[in-house]
Amino acid sequence: MAILADITPLRQSVPFRRLWWGQGLAAIGGQFTAMAVALQVYDLTRSTFMVGLLGVFALVPLVVMGLYGGSIIDNHDRRTVALISAVVMWCATIGLAIEAWCHLDSVWLLYVMVAIQSGAGAVNSPSRTAIIPRLIDRSLLPAANALNSAVWTVALMVGPLIGSALVAGFGYKTAYTVDVVTFTAALYAVIRLPSVRPLRSDDPADKPLRGWRSVVDGFLFLGTRPNVRMTFFMDLAAMVLAQPVALYPAVATDMIGGGPTTAGWLTAFVAFGSVMALVFSGPLGKVRRQGRVVAIMVAGWGAGILGFGVVLMRVGAHHPDHVVWWALIASGACLAFAGACDSVSSVFRNVILQSATPDKLQGRLQGIFTVTVSGGPNLGKVLSGSAVRGLAGVSPVPLGLTAAVGGALCVLAVGVLSRVTPQFLRYDAQHPQP
Fold it and tell me: How far is it, in rounded angstroms, from Cα 220 to Cα 384?
């Protein structure tokens, strides 16, 4: 059995290869910009709550455009949709760079740019993902999704480190400007993709719906497909209940020490675990009980975040003037384990969705999926940031308590969901049932 990642999709499909490397460039720039924005908001406000509020401004356009964008994808050329939405994201990144170069120091302008990026990204991401089943054979979907997850997690590992280093060494304007350059290259990769027009049948009853009626039709389909639906619920359990990203700036400043560099390392630890899992993802293509693996991996994510919270509770809040190395290493081990579990879960959640959804509904279901996988973390940021404020009078170490409670709730939620929908644990990849 092959142990290393299967790169067959990259060898067999030139369009997939273009989509893959273009997505990688955009992801790296996007990740270090996200880190730079969080650091800048914390630098301007010294408030974890204000950092968490970034999630609110990202969530609303994400939900609206993620849902409506699915209808656009299913009714238009997916390449064209991906290109237009990417141009909007590129313009928002230019806006961030202008804000920094002009020294406006406006938290609210940062919120607006993040909202624009989020709305456009909510259309761009599902359009790219909905293209994949049209570029490769269905048997290669696990390998293709592992490669996609790998490039995203490499970006998650490298991006925050680059972003925090650029901020520490050259300031926010340089970080945002570099993202503008990398995104320009990513736009070229999308332009080179072939046209991916909607598949139409001659059946009059199969006439495509448009607008919000089309969105409702996607939800009606989802309501009758318990296995597909569970991929969404499992991800929400992890990302809403156990999402510690909003805590990183405060943890780096007030607990572990090291400032922006440590905040970048905390994010990179999650990505490192993901990359290690995906480097050795060769056997994933042989897994049949994909639903069971998803449940185990989501519970593993919760356990990792629980461990991270315990470490923070142990180190306490003492505003160190140096890095507390044992805490950084222990936190890294917990977050890397969580990241490894999340990457495997992500691969199979995507495969189940792509395999059990008709092509005419791929855009809408991928839109809902994007709202879930991106909106969940944003909602989780708000929840964790608000929890810190609420627990400040209860515990001297609310950051650690927030992470630990969130991880424990995630594990509990997986148990409840598995009990309510036991057929998900029996999902068979060779006979996919939605």
Answer: 32
Distances in Å between the Cα of 337 and the Cα atoms of 105, 200, 241, 297, 371 are: 37, 44, 17, 10, 25
Distances (CA, A) of 102 to 105, 115, 163, 179, 284: 8, 20, 19, 17, 49
Report the alpha-carbon distance of residue 150 to residue 346 in Å, rounded.
Answer: 11
- Residues 319-356 have pLDDT tens digits of 667 888 888 899 999 999 999 898 888 888 878 877 77
The dihedral built from the CA positions of residue 14, 18, 23 and 28, taken in this order, carries a sign that is positive
Question: In angstroms, rounded to a whole number, what is the distance separating the alpha carbons of residues 146 and 278?
Answer: 6
Joined together, the tokens standing for residue 158 give 């490298």
CB 237 within 8 A of CB 379: no
Angstrom distance (rounded) from CA 209 to CA 198: 12
Instruction: Provide φ and ψ at 200, rounded to 5°.
Output: -120, 140
Whole-model pTM? Answer: 0.66
pLDDT per residue as tens digits for the range 259-280: 777 887 887 788 788 778 777 6
* Other beta carbons less than 10 A from residue 386's beta carbon: 17
